[in-house]
Amino acid sequence: MDVVIVILLLIIISILLRMNSKLPKRDLAKEAIDRYNKEKEMKME
Known about the structure:
Blueprint: H1 2-19, H2 25-44
């Protein structure tokens, strides 16, 4: 299941990067990583 979730996240990130190409890619990557980590923490608790 984890692999499927990661693949879906990568697809969503790529779509966001295309839509928000004006923004720096690093910021979007950071946001995506932060969201992923937060979701992980919530699941762990």
